[in-house]
Amino acid sequence: MRMKIENGHVLDPGRVDGIRDIWIREGRIEAITEPGEIKDAADEVLDAKGLVITPGLIDMHVHLREPGQEYKETIETGCRAAVRGGFTAVCCMPNTRPVNDNAGITAFIVSRAREVNLARVYPVAAITAGLSGTQLNEYADLKAAGAIALSDDGMPVANAQVMRRAMEYAKAFGLLLISHCEDHTLAGDGVMNEGETATRLGLSGISNLSESIVVEREIGLAEWTGSRIHIAHVSTRESVRAIREAKKRGVQVTAETAPHYFTLTDVAVGMYDTAAKMNPPLRSEADREAIREGLRDGTLDCIATDHAPHAPMEKDAPFDDAPNGILGLETSLGLSLALVHEGLLSLGDLVRLMSKNPARILGLSNDLVPGAPADLTVMDTEAVWTVDPSDFASLSRNTPFGGWKLKGRAVATLVGGRVVFRDC
Questions:
Q1: 365: Cα separation from own chain's centroid
Q2: What CATH class has 56-362?
Q3: What is the pTM of this model?
Q4: What residues does 409 pair with on adjacent strands?
Q5: Coil vs helix vs strand at 263
Q6: What integer pLDDT is reported at residue 203 of this predicted model?
Q7: Where in the chain is the domain with CATH 2.30.40.10?
Q8: Minimal CA–CA distance to 119: which of 363, 348, 377?
């Protein structure tokens, strides 16, 4: 079967930027041509006039909850949310039940994702057994089973010696380490950002230092061992500064942030709104501005979602007791395109942050060239739409963005040449 996507603005930064036709055969890109250059017929035609076509978006940080918490999300519902959001691939974190700390769980996730057959799913396995922060897992077995990276996300590796050994061990197998940077002794029983809003609400605060001090540690360990380190969900100005300075020294550090950190501040907690409760917490306006600048100047490499589904009954609890986390897959592109509409980023910059850089960091290739898998995101950057959580593909509804009007969305997603989502 041959497919043609015609008259779209094809944007693969540094490679192609203009109106083109994309020809797809047997799941792969056959050719990218000037409009009308090839007169052959196609079995299926998608008219992309007025739309932008990019390499498929990749989310480096999601929680799919399966196995063990399928009432929150499953691999199938999470992947449906992903493709509706324009994501052709996601990396799922290991804090499932049981934890993805062995080849059996990794293989199950790979197999289940293959059955679902929507977005590509790359498991991130645990650094330590049971996320305990003590005993390293069998990295060779995890990689052989399909793990693309390692993280104890949700729990920091508190022991610096264990983290050093993990870096050295992961380096030997070419696996990326993703660090959840949090010092529990500093975070204590905090439930939101330390600041004026927490004081007004009488809630325990979490200081910026609880994140940035571990960021500094990971940078130091990576520099000492010559290893790579990826910093997850950066939220503070101190972390941005430390990463910027480390990159200037040549440290192999990369970092991600999430749309909520460049869109919201801790004021969004309002009157104990658990939809705005997450870890790390929403920070101050100064931190939000630092995150935006970090994206603009390249200090921060990726925009990830940290998609964290929770059932309504769990979020409908006193603020202290409610779990951390918000949904992100179906709102990320619209929220991130705001940075383009504001002029902070170019559209090419955003494609790098949401597609090209994640692929590079993970060791994947998503160049739009003949022979490459046809993993594509088709977006309408001007479409105005209203966030309606009741319409989400995700099983959960925990978002602070319900009712927001966003400009820009995915209108089609192709994985391996198959149209897995289309609304155009």
A1: 17
A2: alpha beta
A3: 0.98
A4: 380
A5: helix
A6: 98
A7: 2-52+371-422
A8: 377
